[in-house]
Amino acid sequence: MARFFVDARELNSDTLTLTGSNLEHAMVLRLKVGEEVIVCDGQGRECKCVVSDIAPGKFSLTVKSCQVSEAEAAVKASVYMAFSKGDKPEHVIQKATELGAYEIVAFPTERCVSRPDEKSLKKKLERWQKIAVSAAEQSGRGLVPQVIILNSYPEALKRAAQADLAILFYENEQANTLKAALSNVKFQTISLLTGPEGGLECREVEQAVQAGFHICTLGKRILRCETAPLCALSAVMYHTGEF
Questions:
Q1: Structural domain count, the chain
Q2: What is the reported pTM?
């Protein structure tokens, strides 16, 4: 069943009209009067609707019923990824959305090769958020993860540390495992922080320890910066019964 995301205010009425990219999507799908679709507010509420009228450049829907989306994870997992080169962030955003991330946060660290300026970041954020919307539609979610860009590593640490459980993954850590960290505490919110291509500086790891993070290993093999956050998120979803 086709799925569309609209502003939450549009679902306060018994009828709504698809516009913009939603209208283009509906036209590509060649929807017909009487067909059912799902319309979501991007915040976890979804409504079953029926196409009631089609006119040039216009698709009208009638809302039949609404409910809380059953596709959302019980635990809110925030993925914190350091800036990386090329399309790696896009890959992480798409797959993390499919896996059930609550939000995706990007930030700079000392070893980041990618250091986009403010203008570039604005364009990237717009594109990244569109990727999250598209991935949420494809995977049948009722919530679109918010993509957030922070200006500094300390800001990322401070924000991530507010979760019930905050974990930083470090390639030189050998003793503390993700399994142990997840098993030792009950949590409803979790932050998963990974570094850039060059890894994190020792002092950055120490800053995380002081902020209350658990420092964990993701195993004996060194994972790429675009692999590590998805590996960690998958493990969390498995641990909390989502798989």
A1: 2
A2: 0.88
